[in-house]
Write a structure and sequence with these properties.
479 residues; binds 6-O-phosphono-alpha-D-glucopyranose; alpha/beta; 17 helices; globular; 10-stranded mixed sheet; 6-stranded parallel sheet; binds adenosine-5'-diphosphate
Length: 479
């Protein structure tokens, strides 16, 4: 039996209990099959990280993780991954803070990951690499002579050439993605953008069927939307809504309706314009005062990156301002928390909410949208307000779809949700529910692994590129 080896920067170690804010870890944990190996960063920093991974096993899943040094953390994680790639991939070109040493650190950590992983691989393993931290990992593994099938999945959006060309070392990174056998995206828009980039920036040759030829490589680019274990989440929501925390929330609200937003505290999530929109709702429709309370949970994230700290300060200011303007002595319109909350507790809160606000400025998929729908009581469901720029909007067309840059439009959607009759809420929910139950975490894995398993004999023509950027480009035919 072939073993699945999942590789991601963030690994939710079973020994470290606690809430996991981040879609990738949540969805993969829902879908891993027994016997798999999960390899990545331990989440810890060490003065002198060892070359050998620390290994632990739980529920027949083996976790192999390595620590990062302070410099690696700064250059690879806070630097190139989260101060260049993340903003670029979310179309925020002006938030890129490029430093050449961060890029070198990024490449070096990918080489170190590859060397540690290569020692653990068996010849028949299928390797599935996840997300922007590890774009060149496949090319590094090939350079070490690894001939297994290797796939890559990008959990973020992917921009057209006009955006991607602004990425420093963009050609080299794009060329390194061509070392994988399969490359996956959440939506057709992102896949098409990627194919356009490979064609325009590298001179690659797509055949129209998803196969792309580039130098000596031929690989497949697919669309595979991620989902959740909807059935399990729905059960968890029903149980949790009867639990102590949900009951406390309910008691604290009295007869008021609950609006809820749950995100990592990230500038891609549209939190500023969401709060602005809530203020406009209250300004425009005074009869909603005292009728609704908005609970925004924005778990602190990537606090070593300045733009995240700045956003946190701005949100504190706006939340204070909003409550100062609209609060009454017995009603506070906005409840704002920056602590992560357990997924089980969130599930109960979603079920109780009258509307869910998922308004990212740009998002690969957005699992909160799917969790919100799965958690609802079909007899009295809440309304989902969803950004058209979340990958989830492709599937969840019966949400109230909004432009997240237009606070007035979000405010109107909130008003509509607060006044929507039961029949319309049920109709919309029925259709959304179908989509969420169709595109599950399990299906996401099956579809990707099915593609990765095809053409098993079609091994890469060469062991891969040289380690240097110029040589790597040359061996993939790039300029
Ligand atoms: P991202 O991966 O960018 O964080 P997603 O919406 O795809 O966005 O995934 C977020 C995941 O993390 C969801 O499973 C959600 O329940 C969880 N999560 C998000 N925000 C919080 C929070 N504030 N506290 C706890 N969990 C959170
Ligand atoms: C997004 C990214 C993931 C990342 C997660 C949490 O979901 O796509 O790769 O793990 O955010 O971010 P963090 O920086 O804490 O890993």
């Amino acid at each position: 039996m072939q073993r699945l080896v999942v590789v991601s920067n963030r690994v939710p170690l079973p020994s470290e209990k606690g809430p996991r804010a981040g879609g990738l870890a949540v969805a993969l944990a829902d879908a891993l099959v027994p016997g798999s190996l999960w390899f990545g960063w331990s989440g810890r920093r060490a003065a002198r990280p060892g070359a050998e991974p620390a290994v632990q096993t739980s529920d027949d899943i083996t976790y192999a993780t390595i620590d990062l040094s302070d410099t690696e953390y700064r250059q690879f994680y806070a630097g190139f991954s989260n101060s260049v790639l993340w903003p670029l991939l979310h179309f925020r070109l002006s938030l890129q803070h490029f430093r050449a040493e961060d890029y070198q650190g990024y490449r070096a950590v990918n080489r170190r990951f590859a060397a540690a992983l290569a020692r653990l691989l068996r010849p028949t393993d299928r390797v599935w690499v996840h997300d922007y931290h590890l774009i060149p990992l496949g090319a590094e593994l090939r350079a070490l002579g690894v001939r297994n099938r290797i796939g890559f999945f990008l959990h973020t959006p992917f921009g057209p050439p006009a955006i991607t060309q602004a990425l420093p070392h963009g050609n080299a990174l794009l060329a390194s993605m061509c070392a994988y056998d399969v490359v996956g995206f959440h939506t057709e828009t992102y896949r098409t953008a990627f194919v356009d980039c490979v064609r325009e920036m590298l001179g690659g040759k797509p055949d129209g069927d998803g196969r792309i030829g580039f130098g000596t490589c031929a690989f497949t680019a697919i669309v595979d939307p991620i989902g959740i274990d909807a059935e399990a989440f729905a059960r968890m929501a029903a149980t949790s809504s009867r639990g102590a925390e949900s009951q406390r929330l309910r008691a604290s609200l009295g007869d008021r309706k609950l609006a809820i937003g749950v995100d990592r505290l990230d500038y891609s999530k549209g939190l500023l314009s969401r709060m602005d929109a809530f203020g406009r709702l209250l300004e425009r429709y005074p009869h909603h005062h005292r009728e609704v309370s908005f609970l925004q949970i924005a778990a602190r994230s990537r606090e070593d990156v300045n733009d995240y700290r700045d956003l946190g300060e701005e949100l504190n200011r706006i939340a204070g301002d909003l409550n100062g303007r609209f609060s009454e002595f017995d009603w506070v319109p906005l409840r704002y928390m920056t602590r992560p909350v357990r997924r089980r507790t969130l599930a109960g809160f979603y079920r109780f909410a009258h509307m869910g606000l998922v308004t990212p400025l740009r998002d690969g998929m957005n699992l909160v949208a799917k969790e919100f729908v799965a958690a609802q009581d079909s007899a009295d469901p809440g309304v989902l307000i969803l950004s058209r720029f979340a990958g989830a909007a492709d599937e969840m067309t019966d949400a109230l779809i909004v432009n997240p840059f237009d606070a007035d439009e979000i405010a109107e959607a909130m008003h509509r949700a607060l006044t929507m009759n039961l029949e319309e809420r049920q109709e919309r929910h029925r259709s959304l529910r179908q989509r969420v139950w169709h595109s599950t975490a399990r299906r996401f894995c099956e579809v990707f692994l099915d593609h990765l398993g095809r053409d098993e004999d079609d091994l890469p023509a060469s062991a891969g590129p040289d380690q240097t950027e110029g040589a790597s480009l040359a061996s993939f035919g790039g300029a």
